[in-house]
Structures are given as C-alpha cells and as structure tokens.
Amino acid sequence: MGVLALLFLYPLYQVLVNSISDPGVVATKNGLLLWPQGVHFDAYRVVFANKNIWIGFKNTLVYMVLGTVCQFIVTVITAYPLSIKNLTFKKPILIYFTISMYFGGGIIPYFILINNLGLMNSMWVLIIPQALNVYNMIIMRTQFVNLPEELKEAAYIDGAGDGTILFRILLPLSTAVSAVLILFTAVHYWNMWFDPMIYLTKREMYPIQSILREILIDNAAIGQAGRAGVQTKLNRNTDQAAVNALIKYATIMVTTVPILCVYPFAQKHFVKGVMVGSLKG
Questions:
Q1: Any domain includes 245
Q2: Torsion of CA 35, 39, 45, 47, to 10 degrees
C-alpha cells in the first residue's frame, strides 16, 4: 500500500519541487530533482498575477457548485422511484438508463443539439446536459433499496408521503453515499476541460482547467500570463524555455491543490459510501 501511495504522490511531489527550484537547474536535470534547489516562489507570483487564473477559478467554482447541486437533486429524485418494488415498467426504464451509459448519439449530433437549444457559450451548457449521471443514480438507487423496507411501510402508515419519506428518512440515512457522489461530481466539474473546449468560445467563460490547458500547450500564452509588470528573478533568466516550464509547473500545482484539500473532509464517508453503494440491490 505504501508503494502504491508513493507511485501516486511522487509525480505531484516532483512538480512541486520543480515549481520552486531554479529554472536553470531544473532544465539541467531534465526536471528530475529529489529536493528543491535554489528555492524561490517567483513562478507562483507570475501565476497569481495572471487575471485569467482568477477568472478561471471563479468560473470553475460557479460551474462546480451549480452542477453538483443540480446533478445531486436530479440523481436523488430519479433514484427514489426506481427503488420502489412495485413500480410499473421499472425494469424497462432501468434497461433504458443502462443502455445510455454505453451508447450515445455521437459528438456531432450532440453539438448540433446543443447549438439548436441555444446553449452555446452559456454556463448552462455544462450543467443541464449533465444533470443526470446514470452511474451515480444506480449507486443511490442501490442505497435506497438496501434500506429496510419496514421504514418506508411505517412512514406510509403514519401518513407520510413520498417526499417526506425521501427527504426526511432515506436521505438522512444515506449521508455516506451522498458525500461520495457529491465528491465525485465536484471533482468531475473541477477537472472539466473537454466540454468547455467545444461549447465555450469566450475566454472569459473558461474554467480553470481550460486556462491550464492553454498555458501548457502555448508558450506565447505563458509570456502573456502575468510576467508583464511582475519583476522577479524569472525576468532576468535568459533561458525562456526553462522559465516557461517553471511557470507550467506552478500552474499545475495551483490548479491541483484546491481540489485535493477537499478529500480529507470527505475521507470518513468515502470508504463507507463506496462499500454501501457497491452492494447488490
């Protein structure tokens, strides 16, 4: 387990070390340093001076919060009816949802549909089409099925409706699974870059990962990213390629660390939620 953890953590450690080391040393060692050399934080000053980074953070937070809330609500209200034993046409509906996980209409018809709906260059293009995640819905449905049927029957006898049963009985008993699904969805929105690349053409609407992609593939974008007006040691470095690489490392760290900080808060629910959601319903 320790070796596996090292395999996952070492690349992040390597990026961190490179981002605070002297660019000349990093270039000489081909980016393979065991510890920082010539420590400075000028690359981070350059990154934080880039207004596009802050715009990307703001956009990502908006997309992540709205998308996570919408997807969780739709997931719950879809999973609950499908957990009822005697629901009419339940099996065909489940088969339909399952088929949609493996077969889609294709990216070109999807693009045409989005365009005809008027969702292009709108934040809703990243939220409405992804309002239901079938995989998450199946996990939540399995959780509802595994809860004692007697709870629902007793609530019905006491006069409770489906809304009361769902939101006041089943959901409070499903906090572990809910936490896991919320975490999965939030991470998905934080890492999203492909859909924005296709459906968003206005740079002021780019999420942080689109900004990161732009910086990683375009050296000219790095030069415009914030070095102008930021007097650091990097401005005096003649090796432009080494400086660009350092800024890339710093940008990767800045866009990765925030979402990593969420995991410790959800850790106590994570294992329990995955185990419960994996039980056969």
A1: no
A2: -30
Q: Kindly list the distances between the CA atom of residue 32 and the CA atoms of 8, 11, 25, 166, in Å, as whole numbers in the listed order.
A: 16, 10, 10, 53
Q: What's the CA gap between 142 and 271, in Å, rounded?
A: 16
Please report whether residue 9 resides in a domain.
no
Supply the DSSP string of 67-108, one letter for each residue.
HHHHHHHHHHHHHHHHT-TT-TTHHHHHHHHHHHHH----HH
> What is the pLDDT, as a whole number, of residue 277?
45
Q: What is the dihedral of CA 265, 271, 274, 278, to 10 degrees?
A: -170
Q: What is the CA radius of gyration of the chain?
A: 23
Q: Dihedral of the CA atoms 219, 221, 223, 225 (nearest 10)? A: -140
What is the distance between the alpha carbons of residues 217 and 83, in angstroms, rounded to a whole number? 47
pLDDT in tens, 111-163: 999 999 999 999 999 999 999 999 999 999 999 998 888 888 888 888 888 88
Residue span of the structural domain in which 102 resides: 51-223+262-277
For the chain, what is the mean pLDDT?
83
Domain count, the chain: 1
- Cα separation of 220 and 174, whole Å? 49
Find the largest Cα–Cα distance for the chain. Answer: 78
Does 43 reside within a domain? no
Decide if 32 is inside a domain: no
Give the CATH number of the domain where residue 138 resides: 1.10.3720.10
Whether 1 has a pLDDT exceeding 70, the answer reads no
Name every residue whose Cβ is closer than 8 Å to that of residue 51 and which is 6 or more positions away in sequence: 226
Q: Over pLDDT 90: what percentage of the chain?
A: 37
pTM: 0.83
Structure confidence by residue, pLDDT tens digits, 195-223: 999 999 898 999 999 988 888 776 555 55
